[in-house]
Design a protein that fits this description.
Length: about 100
């Protein structure tokens, strides 16, 4: 039995779409994991163990309770040195 050119074209299109989706998902996951790891390392090296980091696409969300406003600013600066500052989302609070 011979498959028609329309069926083969449709199959090739669906296969290409599936492989493109897989490559995009794996690439996005790798970028998110790398960004989070780099920011965590920078924060740990600068003594900001209180800070929490998670990623959402290209955005890097920082949270946690800073012991002072200076520590909060220092943590944001440390994160901004390893990823673009525009990608950072500040969700930190300061201990009263």
């Amino acid at each position: 039995m011979r498959l028609g050119p329309k069926i083969l074209t449709a199959f090739a299109l669906f296969l290409a779409a599936g492989l493109s989706w897989l490559a995009a998902s794996l690439g996005a996951g790798a970028i998110e994991a790398r960004s989070a790891a780099v920011v965590r390392i920078a924060l740990t090296e600068n003594g900001h163990g209180w800070a929490e980091v998670h990623t959402d696409g290209l955005l890097v969300h920082m949270g946690g309770e800073a012991p002072s406003e200076a520590a909060r600013f220092s943590a944001l600066s440390a994160a901004g040195r390893v990823v673009e500052a525009d990608r950072g989302v500040d969700g930190t609070t300061v201990t009263p």
